[in-house]
Amino acid sequence: xxxxxxxxxxxxxxxxxxxxxxxxxxxxxxLDGEGTMLQETVKRLSNLEVDSSxxxxxxxxxxxxAEQLRExxxxxxxxLEPVGKNTAPAIALAALASQGDxxxxxxxxxxADHVIRDEVAFTKAVxxxxxxxxxxxxxxxxxxxxxxxxxxxxxxRGKEQGAGFVVDKFVEKPSxxxxxEYISSGDHxxxxxxxxxxxxxxxxxxxxxxxxxxxxCKASMVxxxxxxxxxxxxxxxxxACSSESVDHxxxxxxxxxxxxxxxxxxxxxxxxxxxxxxxxxDDNGNVIHGxxxxxxxxxxxxxxxxxxxxxxxxxxxxxxxxxxxxMVAHKDAVxxxxxxxxxxxxxxxxxxxxxxxxxxxxxxxxxxxxxxxYQAKHxxxxxxxxxxxxxxxxxxxxxxxxxxxxxxxNGDKTFLLSENESTYIPIGVxxxxxxxxxxxxxxxxxxSGCYLEEDDxxxxxxxxxxxx
Length: 468
Known about the structure:
With 468 residues, this protein is α/β, with parallel strands linked by helices. It contains eleven helices and 30 strands. It has three domains: 3-267, Spore Coat Polysaccharide Biosynthesis Protein SpsA, Chain A; 272-338, no CATH class; 357-461, Jelly Rolls (Sandwich), CATH 2.60.120.10. The chain has a six-stranded antiparallel β-sheet, with no helix packed on it.
């Protein structure tokens, strides 16, 4: 039987603000390890006999997913959710997409934002669960708890079955006292959100307990279309689908749920304090990333992505500095980072959604300065990449090449610009930029005008399918 990895790559990760933001959330960041969390999730599959993969993400993150998967050589299929509807519909889409004329693969469902330290133990736990899934059981993996954590749901095990146990019940996030009772009992596990089951078995149980979700997802997959590396489903049908977790929709109702223990050094990195917990510390219990200097400080997490950060005489703090934001929080209060992100959103501030450095399918730009009627950007274009043919109603632009060679279309003229050469693009003139060379193209863009937001772009032609 074939195995298909289903990677859930949605979510905004607001509890890790200011590093994780709506358009660039934690699963696409290198928080723990050399690769991004998505890439580390994919690499974790290398010792398992996985035949294919399906990654599920939203529209805004599609180019992150494709590029990062391509870098680790496991692009697979990518399904775009028009809107987020939680895990039960997402897994249903993957199950429907995975089934061919005769194939009924086992689905190994993974979140793209988990840390697993012991990959040997992870491989063994999944391998031990294969016979259960082949026999028609719906396997969930329970993390062996190390402490009475109140931020996780729990699974109570029943009688032994193969490498696992029949699920007695799922329990919501408990109080500290109740969590301590669970730990003492020895028969409770943290709910990991990792699953293994046949595609057909999941769909049968979903159809039994939530036929509305099953029918909506099936209808959404009737009229699909391919767009570059992505599979687009029927938006109208999927929007009508109920939003529900796989636990509430299926796992809490089915008689076939089995939990397999997993002791693998697992964390979902749900907050800055949990990232401090799993990170390597110095002799004073500090975790530092980037250009950081500490004096007489203990048990703190300090991260800088640009400027020097110095901390003196501080204990138990989380300090995170990005190019456009600085957060200082006590470790006991870091969960409230999501409240700041929400306030920024309500106040229409871009910091909840965007970094100063913004990634695009063709490269990235860094908004290095901005005033009332001007903005300066440092633009980097990857070899072979091309910005869309576009125009602006409210701004003019001046491009100065810093390094590399740019192929520029400015109105009815197309020409090359080399280092220290420039061109001026008036308001309303169609223009495009391409890096046809072998090295990155860098340029400075100066915008001037009465309105400088990103929605003042009229695209006429785009190789990445962004023309509406």
